[in-house]
Amino acid sequence: MNTLRCGSYALCLLIHVNLSAQWSATVLNPEGTNFSSANGVNAGYQAGYITVEGANHAAIWTGTAGSVVDIHPTSGAILSYVNAVSSNQQGGSINATTGPSVQASLWSGTAGSHVSLSPAGYDGWSIVRAMSETQQGGYVSYAASLGFQYAALWTGTAGSFVNLHPGDIYTTGSSVYAMSSSQQAGIGRVSGGWRRAVLWSGSAESVVYLHASGPTSLAESGVYAMTDSAQGGFVNLTGGDSQNHAAIWFGDPDSRVDLHPTGATRSEILAMAGGFQAGFVDNQAAVWTGSEASYLNLHSYVTSLLGSDFTQSSIKGAYLDAGTLNLVGSASDPTHSLTYAMLWTMAIPEPSTYGLAIGLVTLGLVLWRKRHGPAAQGRGN
User: Fold this and answer.
1) Is the pLDDT of residue 16 over 80?
2) SS in 3 state form for the chain?
3) 330 FRET partner, CA 20 to 30 A, in 59, 153, 277, 355?
């Protein structure tokens, strides 16, 4: 998607107001459950998990709470989760009754379609955290050292597993959290468990280090979302998550842009689509369009539907579909231990809308100049 760059503050303000007015929100939490989360979205559907009789079940929605479909495997699973989606498949994990206790998993829209991606030789946990149309990414581990994760890539079967873990400085693990059509991104861990943003192109040897060093050194960084041209996640200078700053990269460490809003404590990007980035700022759902100034808080749509007890929200998935930006995530009421899956949508204005905005601003400038005279050219002596 092309990114509109404003030529004047007046034009930016006009377009921002128009975009802000077009958001809507839907609670996806089905009746009778106190916990649900939507983690991925694609053309026409959303996916995540719901609580059924005290157990988390992988689930799919098509835009309303009543449309929920439980895709928990018909056998062999205690718990199940969807973390990511493509146009026709869902990836995540199950807590299994036999074999490795947590197994990377793939569905094709039904409970009976479940496939375990747990690769031979890795008897610990494995999880799918990201997907493209043809591949799945996440991590695998050994039972003897569950905390050491190996970044993983699959193409639909357990036997297709590729180990992406870069062994050099990443001595305490790695994981894929995001995928585009040709690349994978996530986190590598160095000595002490410190996190570093990394980017791959299908092999361990292809790793690119996005973590800045030298004069602009960061304590930690990580990628949680990406498009074909950009990566999004967090950076911080102090270590730990409490002061994370939302950030985007464009394939190398020097390209980093800090999106953290002035005055905020913590922000992260967890989802991207086209020129949009989404996640949270100080535990409230947020969206950006490539700059700190573009930040928009979407939590007000939560409180208008669920009330003021729902004080927290986050966006975890994003998809551009036929002129509509779709964002999914969850909203929480910590006092009453409630978490509800959410869907936010925004109609993307047609190019004619931008043309009208530009025309109005141009007319305003003409009238202003007629009243006040031509603007000064330079400072003069």
Assistant:
1) no
2) CCCCCCCCHHHHHHHHHHHHCCEEEEECCCCCCCEEEEEEEECCEEEEEEEECCEEEEEEECCCHHHCEECCCCCCEEEEEEEEECCCCEEEEEEECCCCCEEEEEECCCHHHCEECCCCCCCCCEEEEEECCCCEEEEEEECCEEEEEEEEEECCCHHHCEECCCCCCCCCCEEEEEECCCCEEEEEECHHHCEEEEEECCCHHHCEECCCCHHHCCCEEEEEEECCCCEEEEEECCCCCCCCEEEEECCCHHHCEECCCCCCCCEEEEEEECCEEEEEECCEEEEECCCHHHCEECCHHHHHHHCCCCCEEEEEEEEEECCEEEEEEEEEEHHHCEEEEEEEEEECCCHHHHHHHHHHHHHHHHHHHHHHCCCCCCCCC
3) 153
